[in-house]
Amino acid sequence: MARKPKSEPMRNSSAVAELREIVDGLVGIAEEAQSLKDRASEIAARAKARGFDVKALKKIVKEALEDDAAKADRHETEQIVEVYRAALGMLDGTPLGEAARDRLSRHDDQDDDGDGEGPAERPVATVITAEDIAAAREEGREACRAGKVVTDNPYTARDPRRAAWDEGWCFEGNSDGMDIPEAFRRRKPAKDEPAKDDDTGAGEE
User: Fold this and answer.
1) How far apart are CA 39 and CA 195, in angstroms?
2) What residue stretches are annotated with the GapR-like DNA-binding domain (predicted)?
3) Domain annotation covers residue 49
4) Boundaries of domain holding 155
5) Is the pTM of this model over 0.70?
6) Widest CA span of the chain, in angstroms?
């Protein structure tokens, strides 16, 4: 039976030296990365000990590192989330933000029938019952059916009926037809703007 030839060390010393240089460089970078990770953990631990919310800090840091495109994309996602919450009755008493309202506003050819001023705001009731909330939600639905825009909400910002009105308007405004409403969709990129892949990761914050 023939013996297997013994493996010989590589004689190309320049290739070995290059390989060693590459490995040493990668190891050094890995060590630096671990050191930076340890420093970040130390800072986070100090912040937590002082009473800061670490999850909120991480989110702020992530936002601070965004470029203009990423920031615009995040803002649009936040607006769509608000629209979804309103349509599902999940605003929990928090009215829609102004950006989400603008997104939902209808820009049609109807003539203005007012004097340029917004709807008269109703005073906040001293005691607001569950019946009041339900009535405000129904008012929002009726307003949508009447062709009013979401910015016609008559309740003030601190009135919990404002969120209920928003929910009713959004529910009614997005309940007809089989197509996904435009406000539910991410805007289409311009022709000269590269399209982004959809991020379907449900576990990301």
Assistant:
1) 37
2) 17-89
3) no
4) 63-106+124-184
5) no
6) 104
